[in-house]
Amino acid sequence: MFNEVTLTLYGKQEVVKMMAANLLWRPIGDALQFVWVISSRGSIVLMCSDLTVAPALIVELYCRRVRIEILFDTLKKRARCVLFPFLEHLSAPSFAPPHVEPQLEGRKS
């Protein structure tokens, strides 16, 4: 049932086991393409509403999303610093020690 396919996952070539099927998804009342993948990172089930897309492409695009999310996060931070420099201190990590409340005398923890 599972086919072994060589795919580019997270920038590296890897042999994975993959199976795909178009199934009715009751919550939306329409068919979706389900792709089951077993790789060195574990197993995953992906769903795609476009039934014409090749299952291998669905898996590779899913793995590319990490790089896309990092790119968008970087662009968002840079745009915030350029457009709103007065807000830069809000995105910088705080290295101040946490505030600790002094213990009251006569109180046992």
Strand content: 25-35%
Strand order of the largest sheet: 1-2-3-4
Cα distance spanning the termini: 60 Å
Q: Helix- and strand-based class?
A: alpha+beta
Give the CA-based shape: elongated
Q: Low-confidence stretches at least 5 residues in length (pLDDT < 50)? A: none
* Overall pLDDT score: 82
Q: From N to C, what is the helix and strand string?
A: EEEEHH
Radius of gyration: 24 Å
The count of strands amounts to 4
What share of the residues lie within helices? 25-40%
Largest sheet: number of strands, sense, barrel closure: 4 strands, antiparallel
**What's the helix count?**
2
Explain what you see.
This protein is α+β, with helices and mostly antiparallel strands. 30% of the residues lie in helices and 35% in strands. It is built from 2 helices and 4 strands; from the N terminus they run E-E-E-E-H-H. It starts with a strand and ends in an 18-residue tail after the last helix.
Write a brief caption for the model.
This protein has 109 residues and is an alpha+beta fold.
Question: In terms of topology, how is this protein built?
Answer:
Blueprint: E1 3-9, E2 12-25, E3 30-39, E4 42-48, H1 55-83, H2 88-91
Antiparallel strand pairs: 1-2, 2-3, 3-4
Based on the model shown, name its key terms:
single chain; 109 residues; alpha+beta; four-stranded antiparallel beta sheet; 2 helices; elongated
